Amino acid sequence: MSQQQLMQRKADATPRGVGVMCGFFAERAKNAEVWDTEGRRYIDFAGGIGVLNTGHLHPKVEAAVAEQLSRFSHTCYQVVPYESYIRLAEKLNGLTPGQHAKKTALFTTGAEAVENAVKVARAFTGRPGIIAFGGAFHGRSLLGMALTGKVAPYKLNFGPFPSDIYHAPYPSALHGVSIAESLTGLERLFKYDIDPARVAAIIYEPVQGEGGFYPAPAEWVKALRALCDRHGILLIADEVQSGFARTGKLLASEHFDAVPDLITMAKSLAGGFTLSALTGRAEVMDAPAPGGLGGTYAGNPLAVAAALAVLDVIESEKLVERAQRLGDALKEKLSGLKTAVPQIAEVRGLGAMIAVEFNQPGSHTPDPDFAKKVQQHALANGLILLTCGVYANVVRFLFPLTIEDEIFAEALGKLEAALKA
Question: Which of 108, 177, 360, 362 is the most exposed place for a label (fewest CB within 10 A)?
């Protein structure tokens, strides 16, 4: 069946609200390569939106899931538990920042982890308010949308949203928001909108994902921690996109001298299988009563097996160090193109969580059209890229950290051609 026929079937059978970027359909994939139904090959620099840090079908992940599938696929952990759930929780308790006692609950999606982080924070503090930041992305559920700091396309026509959610400016020197202005924005919320004694938690992304891959300044994160400590507020780090070796640390929070109380994780945790996690201080995580946390598919045994294999791959293949090396090479390539491509306003990122932002030459005006053209040219030449940012003028890079060196070099050649075209 032709791609055109498949596209027509898609249009007839699925809603337009599920936006699809590519005009072709995947047939198979391996590590950093995807082949479509007509045999064309693509290098994948999207990674299923940050899900495939260990690549498509890593042999260890594939084997672990196959072995688990031979035993059982589902019991619902809350009905008949299994040891692998506990083992993964123990690993995440030990690997996440902080020496304090921790506990972990497993869920299915990133949005679900975020929602449960809010539930836990409210249960522990007895307070309703949650503060997020402009440009944030925390999911497409109703509460996730409320926390998300970007209207189009995520919030359009979907309100009203849950109450007691507030937004402060996220610091970005490129967009004229200093650390001091961001912190002043928080203080203004306390003056104008909500007493800090009513705030349960502040949720932030150590590197904003959908918002544009802006790394949080270390000084700002430390100030958030101090602010939370002063007012009895919990600090939630949303590591859904930034986790699992992407930033040159296992978790991006490790870049900062400020330990969060709760950490949400998903995406590359399970190498393409649906799993998320919430890890936090033991006394905080124990606040909800039995039955208050969970979900029918939460901690699915196939996904748990995949996650245990993923953590093994990250360690055995030294993906934390590899992320830094690949990220440095990509930043060097992009920075070297600034003269030839005057639209490049900034190259930034931690480890391999890299982005390039485009403005109109000689100005501070975002250039989303240029970003889209780069994406389209790259796709036509076999390289899958993603855009992001409040102004849609950013190209982000989420290639598998297991990508072969020769395929990475080939992809950088395609990227350079797209930028210069």
Answer: 362
Q: Smallest Cα–Cα separation from 404: which of 326, 336, 318, 299?
A: 326
Please name the residues in contact with 292: beta carbons below 8 A apart, sequence gap of 6 or more: 119, 123
Question: To which H or E segment does residue 29 belong?
Answer: strand 26-30
Structure tokens that stand for 389 in this block: 């940012």
Least Cα distance to 148 among 127, 124, 120, 170 occurs for: 170
CA atoms within 13 A on the CB side of 225: 17
pLDDT of 88 strictly over 90: yes
Rg (CA), the chain: 21
CA 388 to chain CA centroid, nearest Å: 12
* pLDDT tens, position by position, 210-236: 999 999 999 999 999 999 999 999 999
Is 51:62 a contact under the CB 8 Å cutoff? no
Q: Report how far residue 193's alpha carbon sits from residue 180's, in angstroms, rounded to the nearest whole number.
A: 19
How far from 118 is each of 159, 223, 351, CA to CA, in Å?
19, 21, 29
